[in-house]
Structures are given as C-alpha cells and as structure tokens.
Amino acid sequence: MDYLLRILPPLLDGAGVTLGLFFITLALSLPLGLALALARLSRFAALRHAVSGFIWLMRGTPLMLQLLFVYYALPFVPVIGVRLPDYPAAVVAFTLNYAAYFAEILRAGIQSIDRGQYEGAKALGMSYPQTMRRIVMPQVWRNTLPPLANETITLVKDTSLIYVLALNDLLRAARGIVQRDFSITPFIVAAAFYLLMTLVLTWVFQRLERQQNAHVA
Amino acid sequence: MSPEPAHADLPMVRATGLHKHFGALHVLRGVSLTVARGEVVAILGPSGSGKSTLLRCLNHLETVQRGSIEIAGQKLASADATGASSYPSDSEVRRICQHTGMVFQHFNLFPHLTVLGNLIEAPITVRKQSRADVVPRAEALLAKVGLADKRDVYPARLSGGQKQRVAIARALAMQPDILLFDEPTSALDPELTGEVLRTMRQLADERMTMLVVTHEMAFAREVAHRVVFMDQGQIVEEQPARDFFIQPRHERARAFLAHML
User: Fold this and answer.
1) Domain extent listing, chain A
2) What is the distance between the alpha carbons of residues A209 and A203, in angstroms, rounded to a whole number?
3) Which of A196, B43, B63, B67 has the most CB atoms less than 10 A away?
4) Cβ–Cβ contact B98 with A under 8 A
C-alpha cells in the first residue's frame, strides 16, 4: 500500500499528460475532420482530390511514423521547415491523423442523409449553410456517434505512442518505475487508469446516444 | 427577408416555353402554364410524363434550360432572345421561392425535430421570427390539420397520413402564396389518403392557390378547378376539371382516364 502511494504521484503526472493530449487532440481533430469531410464532398474537384490524398496519406502510414516525421523530419522540409517542441509536435501529428479518420466517418454520415431532407429544407427557403447546420448535421451527429465513440476510445490508448518523443505520459511513467523497481505493479496501475478513462468515455457516449435517440423510441 | 406581397391581379405562376433535359432525356418539351390566384390545378398524366419535374422547376428544386418562370410576378427564370434561361443570385432565388411551399410524396419531415419543431424551424431560421410569435401560429396550424395533440411527438411515431398532414402544416407555417403538391398521397396506404385529401380540400375551400400532381382522380374531379394533362413532356390538354372528366378531347387523355377510372 505504501509502495502504491509512493508510485502514484508520478503515474498521476503521466495520466495528466495523457489526458491533456487526448482532450487537445479531440478538440482540434473533430472540427478539422468536419471541415475535411465537407471539403471531400465539395463541388470543386481539386479540393476533393487534395483532401482524398491527405486522408490516404494519414490512414495509409503508421501514426508512429507520422509522429517521428513531424518531430524529426519537418524541420528539414522546404517551405514548411519548422522545428516544433516535442509536445506541440505530438499534438500536430495526432490531430492530423485523427482528423483524417473523423473525416471519413463524418463523410459517410453526411452521405447517408436522404436527398429529401435537403429538398424539404430548400422548399422551406433554407440556405445550404442553414440546411447543413440545422437539418443535416444534427442527424449526422446522431448517426455517427457510435463510430466516433470507437475512434475516441482508440485515441485514449494511442496517446501512449508519444513515448517515442520521450514525453512522460502514463505508460512511459509506468515503464520508468518498472525498470527502476523491478515491480510490475506500475503496469497494473497504468492499465487501471486506461480502463477508468475508457469506462468514463463509454458512459458519456452512452448518455449522448440515449439523448440523441429520444425521437426513435 | 419576407417576400413582397403578391398582387391579386397577377397570376401566381406564369411559366412559358419550359424545356428541361436530364442528360439525353428531354423531360419538358415546351411547357407553358399559368395559375391564377386562388385556383386549384390538378396535373395528371402517366408516370414519366414530366409532371413532377414541372412542379419541381417552379420552386427551383430543378432548373430549366429554356423558358421563363414568374412566381407572383417575380422572375425566377428569365429567357434571353434565344430562349435560354438564366436565374438570379441564390439569395434572390430563395426570396422568390418563398412564395411557394411544397408537399412531397415522401413527406421529408425532419426526423430529429418534434412535430412542433418541424413547423417552427424555417420561420425562425429563415424568416428570423421570434419563437414566441411562431409557436402559437404553429399550434393553430396543427389544430387545423387535426394534430394538435401530436405537438411534441417525433415524426417516427406518426402514421403516413399524419406525417403528410404535418408536412402540409409545415409548408403553411411559412405562409406561402401557392402550395405545390407532388403526389401527396402516393406513398400512403389507401385508408390513409382520405385524411390528407380532406385537409387539401379544406385549403381549397379557403382559396389557397394549389398546384397538385396526383393520381387521385376523385380529388381532381371534385376539388380542382382545372385539369392539366401531360404526356411525354408536353401539356396535351387543359380543361376545366368538370369538362375534362366528362369529355377529354385528346386521345391519350381518354386512354389514360379509361385506365385510371
């Protein structure tokens, strides 16, 4: 018990890093994903193709490689050439990667909305932005909650990849203590933390889904 | 952004020489139609004759390639010297189309909104009217179509006939000058068409201008003032409803009626 209390502070610090990255990534990648989804459905072919290419790149290469690339290789890329500190580099890589996945989920959700909904809105005098905001997106949100929840839970665990940038997240903190003390207890505590975060997320999404589905009951 | 009042003497709809192609398919081949204020016009014809397309061109759900369209005296589509059509800006099109309301075959209610929500959505977001003003009017419209008790129900809980009556009330909530009906009873079980037709008859009695694409011959005969018969993208016959059903002039109209009645 004493031991547990002793290793808890560094593990909590690590959990803080994990949660911070999780929330920042979610807050940035969801709106970016929505913008990409709309661009993917745009009238302008050049925009559509550019976004398709970006999504292909992000989904077709490992997230780990993207992390390493943003941190180590970006400074040498002409024009963009910025050197990002480790944490911002992680945020950029995670945001771009998750935005690509969210974009595909939202695109499918938008395309699943019946044409009659657009026509009904148009016949009532609603403009395209009004139709998207008031009629289409609320339904897309409701339909895509389950896959969005899936991705979000995956994100909690994917954050552990930032150990490659030597950031002290939950998993790296645990591993440090394991190597120092020759005890596997920190791993078990870390697993419990991840499970707890997932449990909370599952509960939140279940509540959202129930609230969104009030109209079909 | 409310539409200007329509002048009583102007026709509500004046469409001249409309041509519409879907790729190689020539769906409207020179259609001209005038609808006076307070008139109920039934558009009949076999499927594929272009009647729904004609209706959808009148509120810009489809565009025409040639010809002109005036709604309540305002130019929705203008034809140049060669007959080619052009449209004003999107916001101008929206403003002109606010004179029209549409009732669809498949209702197109918004499933994520309650019945009341369906009625007040457009008046609030499009007309910028206050909720306090819109809600009592929406409630009165629901009472009018006999669905006051369904105010807070979601569309999924309604029967087809109830959905269509909500759709009619929703269109009326925008206070249009003309209502376009695109086969409003075709998706309904036969025993549910009566309630929708009763609501439409009531609107006709109140001198609502209505343009109705329908297969309901009894409704066309009893409620419509005028029948327009279309075939292969053209209006082949236009008569007062009474005369049309007694004495259709055109061979294809006679064959259609023989088949339908």
Assistant:
1) 2-215
2) 10
3) B43
4) yes
Q: Mutate which of A136, A142, A215 to test chain B, going by most B C-beta atoms within 10 A?
A: A215
Q: Is residue B6 assigned to a domain? A: no
C-alpha closest to that of B261 among B198, B200, B215: B215
DSSP state of B163: H
- Domain enclosing residue B165, as ranges: 101-175
Closest A-chain CA to B122: A124
3-state class of B157 per DSSP?
helix
For A211, phi and psi rounded to 5 degrees?
-65, -40
Check residue B1 and give its pLDDT.
42
ipTM of the predicted structure?
0.92
Among the CATH numbers 1.10.600.10, 1.10.3720.10, 1.20.1560.10, 3.30.200.20, which is that of A2-215? 1.10.3720.10
Amino acid at A45: A
Are the CB atoms for B163 and B132 separated by under 8 Å? no
pLDDT for the residue numbered B259:
86
The alpha-carbon gap from B25 to the nearest alpha carbon of chain A, in Å, equals: 21
Q: Is the pLDDT of residue B2 over 80?
A: no
Q: What is the largest CA-CA distance in chain A?
A: 70
What's the whole-model pTM score? 0.88
Helix axes B160-172, B115-125, angle to 10 degrees: 20
